[in-house]
Amino acid sequence: MRKSNKVGRKAGRWVTMKGLIAFLFLWVPLEALQAGTLLRRIHVDHAFRYQGKEEWEIVIHGNDGDPDLDPNETVMVVFDRPLPNEGGRARRPASEQWDFLGVEGNEDVWIIPQNFNPNVWPGWRSEGAFASYYNDDPRLGFSAPFVGISVESVSYSGLGAGHYSMWSNQTGGITKVWITTADGISEDDVYYFSSGHSHTNQGFSDPGVYRVDYRAAGFLANDGGDPPVGTRLATSQLQSFYYAVGTYAEWKATYFEPHELVGESASDPVPEATHHTGDGDRDGLPLLLEYAFNLSPVESDYQVLTPDSGEGGLPLVRLDESSAQPRLVIEYLRRRAEGTPRLSYFPEFSSTLDSGWEEAVGETVFPIDSIWERVVAVDAISENADAVRFGRVRVELR
């Protein structure tokens, strides 16, 4: 019996970090270190190849002449921009038939679509001499040389629930749900196909990193009956595939090996190095601040932003004496909203470190490129001989 579809409510959590600047360190050059292969705009397939003698080869198959890739060393990126041409973000319809997505009606969901799109477009591929058999699954009910792709585990790193789903758009506007983890994982969470190559929709309930563990199975013979019953079942080893949904997840995948991005199992915590509070390079800066201020999470590069020209560094708090009433200002880098970083920056000032933090009264923005901009935020209170003022930038990840 098919599982009932229960809505998995998205968690409404956020993370806050405070950047209080006190010291200036030496500048260290930043390097773009890519730990795994990131797939952003390419047609590939999850490929399950039966080699005979119970041996399977499982790869990410490169179409259009691209080489095959090891799934353990590859991350497929889903952009946090509107579906279909810019990215994978869509709004869930209100109808109950979409409850399997694991989000409420009219909330965001991220999709790799069944139909062609210019971003990452992974299909499904089976290779081997599989036998035709009658499949009595209520979603099928006919004979063909089916290969079943089952989901046995989903590990997730992010602020939401991390539900995964798979479905097909059928003729006549029918939606055929193959897999949904919003109500748990069972033996019904299997995608069957018989053409050797196909595409489905894949859904992700929240931004973050997903590791989905698949297993393939198909019959090598049948009993010759009418309808035929499959015999000699060949089952593959379990294989993980990785997906980075959103800008923060993509950024982490640029620096860390795929297996470092999520726990070893669905019940294990996220490795400390890739947790938002982690400090794997031991430079005193948590991961979230390095993401927010264009620093590297894999090399010790604690530094304060160079005024007017720096391309990475913690916010610079300084006294601006260019006017008749000198004021404290904070100069800092900010990820531009167009890049959907899901970050909020709050430049704040206070006369004490303990409380009384007030937002800046104004800011001047200097665009740098498509990702970054430089911001100068101004304190509301002018300096005088007796004034003591502090500045900080508070960062929230949504």
Distance between the termini: 37 Å
Overall geometric form: elongated
> How many independent structural domains?
2
Largest sheet: 7 strands, mixed
Helix-strand string? EEEEEEEEEEEEEEEEEEEHHEEEEEEE
Give the tally of β-strands.
Answer: 26
Low-confidence residue ranges: 1-33
Number of helices: 2
Q: Give the DSSP E fraction (strand runs of 2 or more residues).
A: 35-45%
**Which radius of gyration do the C-alpha atoms yield?**
25 Å
The secondary structure category is mainly beta
Helix share bin: under 10%
Mean pLDDT comes to: 90
List the helices and strands and how they pair.
Blueprint: E1 15-20, E2 37-39, E3 43-52, E4 55-62, E5 74-78, E6 89-91, E7 108-112, E8 121-127, E9 133-135, E10 142-144, E11 147-157, E12 164-170, E13 174-180, E14 190-193, E15 197-198, E16 201-204, E17 208-222, E18 230-235, E19 239-245, H1 247-255, H2 287-292, E20 316-320, E21 327-335, E22 343-350, E23 358-359, E24 362-367, E25 372-382, E26 390-397
Parallel strand pairs: 2-5, 3-8, 5-19
Antiparallel strand pairs: 1-26, 3-4, 6-7, 7-16, 8-15, 9-10, 11-14, 11-17, 12-13, 12-16, 17-18, 17-19, 20-21, 21-25, 22-23, 22-26, 24-25
Q: What does this 3D model show about the protein?
A:
With 398 residues, the chain is mostly beta strands. The chain folds into 2 domains: 154 residues, Sandwich (Immunoglobulin-like); 238 residues, no CATH class. 4% of the residues lie in helices and 41% in strands. The protein contains 2 helices and 26 strands. The longest helix has 9 residues.
What descriptors fit this protein?
single chain; mainly beta; Immunoglobulin-like; 7-stranded mixed β-sheet; 4% helix; 41% strand
